Amino acid sequence: MKGARVSAFVGIFKGLLLATVVTLVGMLLLAAAVVLLGMSDGVLSALNQVLKLASIVAGVRAAVGIGGSRGFATGAVVALLYMVIGYGLYCALGGMLFSWTAMLGEILLGAAAGAISGTIFVNLHPRGKKRFRAA
Prior knowledge:
Shape: globular
Order of helices and strands: HHHH
Oligomer: single chain
Radius of gyration: 17 Å
Largest sheet: none
Strand content: under 5%
Structural class: mainly alpha
């Protein structure tokens, strides 16, 4: 039982780490696109939401793996932690005033995306394991 918990915590940490890296790289690309292409605020806001979703999916993929276990719970936890940390940093860095409703909405949407993507990854079959049927 202890090994399973440690494995779950390591997976969650790996997922958070990858989600953070994807976010940072994506933010650099978005900043370059804003400078070079002069995007509007609406386009930038939409791309920011896509980047958050991509970061969550990448993090959940790293935490759960293809054909892993506990995808729903692990995906939800990775996304929940990612959103709470991100929202907290955004507010701490002066992004906006703290709003309970905005925070709750962001966190719930992120947790739902993480849980759904975790469920999908768990139900995929690893490529290395081929199923053979007797004819």
